[in-house]
Amino acid sequence: MRVLISGASVAGPAAAYWLCRRGFAVTVVERMPLARVRTSGHAVDLFGPAMDVAEWTGVLPAVMAARTQTEVVSFQRDDGRGVNVHMRRLVAGISGRHTEVMRGALAATLHEATRDDVEYRFEDSIRTIEQEPDGVAVTFERGPAARFDLVVGADGLHSIVRRLGFGPEHGFRRFLGGYLAIFVLPNYLGLERRMVVWNAPGRLAAVYPVRETTMARAGFLFRRDEEVAVDPHDVQGQKRLLHHIYGQDRWQVPRLLDEMDAADDFYFDSISQIVMDRWSSGRLSLVGDAGYSPGPAVGGGTSLAMVGAYVLAEELARAGSNYQAGLSAYENRMREVACRFRKIGPTTMSTLIPRTRLQVRLTPPVLSLITRMPGPLQRRVSKLQATPARALETIPLTGPAETT
């Protein structure tokens, strides 16, 4: 059976690996060049079952070697003083198995694991999809048209497959009340294994190093009750908006705005979820953020994408030629965990981007206090809130040795 996957970040190559292993012929199309895929994105977390999938895929040693190794988050004040929170102790109360890695490094590792068995078409994208009784006719922006038995959208929040197969994005996207901007800059602060974060009511700025390089990544996150009228393709307009929001702030913010203006890899998007009743239609299906994004940077979407890719391939392999049964089983297994992940984004935003000056002052010492609690008590406290680790507990996975 021939499968086309749109998207080569995380969910796409992960699904491609397991589909190839189970006898499918897989093509992956990706609009960005490979070099950009390898360096794109921000730091992401893998929890519990997502770590299992990485291990079963054979990439866990490479993922661990590429981990960010962030040990301390330092919450900064305008005067340069701050409160340090030890990440390892904080995360230990949430999940017994976790790592943080740059999204681009994870994508590069998954590409290395699949490139000999998967046909990759970089710098191309799907133009049209036409479902027919015996397959799917697909045309591309650059490459020749082709036919496939199934098409999988693993192409993120703004999925082409979802738009062509299910309808316009506005019918499925739920705005969570915030925006995210990310860009690369020189590591002029000399950060090593440390992230620095500055908060003001309704907004934050953060900088963290890119391991084994002289560069760092900076991020701006800010709240908005309603979506702003900025063209998603107008990069200069997006940067002007950030100058308007952060232009009077102190700390390192003026320098970060200057570095943002010079950055050529600037990323800006709303913090939004994708909410759908179903992720399959005929011979089309969605995986990861394309079908159930819990919210960029706040919802644990990378862990969910890794698990979703594994479950999709497992159910399609189990169903054999009855792909409809496989897609239905995939949806049934993922539905509850996707619903749980939707609760994470709003909870995380309330911690990341405090609304009031009092919350800004209280958040760092409260987080620091949690890291000093005894392990059992810390785990009890963590159970009071929605986290990716807790949500993933609802979907036990069967190892590949038990399914082949």
Would you give an account of this structure?
The model has no long low-confidence stretch (mean pLDDT 91). The protein has a domain of 213 residues: FAD/NAD(P)-binding domain, CATH 3.50.50. It is an alpha/beta fold. The protein is built from 16 helices and 18 strands. 40% of the residues lie in helices and 26% in strands. Helix 3 crosses helix 11.
The CATH architecture of the domain at 2-68 and 100-172 and 275-347: 3-Layer(bba) Sandwich
Radius of gyration from the alpha-carbon trace, in angstroms: 21 Å
Spatial order of the strands forming the largest sheet: 5-4-13-14-15-12-16
In the CATH scheme, the class of the domain at 2-68 and 100-172 and 275-347 would be Alpha Beta
CATH superfamily of the domain at 2-68 and 100-172 and 275-347: FAD/NAD(P)-binding domain
Estimate the mean pLDDT confidence. 91
Q: What is the total tally of β strands? A: 18
What is the element layout, followed by pairings?
Elements: E1 2-6, H1 11-21, E2 25-30, H2 34-39, E3 43-47, H3 48-57, H4 60-65, E4 72-76, E5 82-86, H5 87-92, E6 98-102, H6 103-114, E7 119-122, E8 126-132, E9 135-140, E10 146-148, E11 150-153, H7 160-166, E12 173-186, E13 194-200, E14 203-209, E15 215-223, H8 235-246, H9 253-262, E16 267-274, E17 280-281, E18 284-286, H10 289-292, H11 301-319, H12 323-342, H13 344-352, H14 357-371, H15 375-382, H16 388-392
Parallel strand pairs: 1-2, 1-11, 2-7, 4-13, 11-18
Antiparallel strand pairs: 3-6, 4-5, 8-9, 9-10, 12-15, 12-16, 13-14, 14-15, 17-18
Helix pairs in contact: 1-6, 1-11, 3-11, 8-9, 11-12
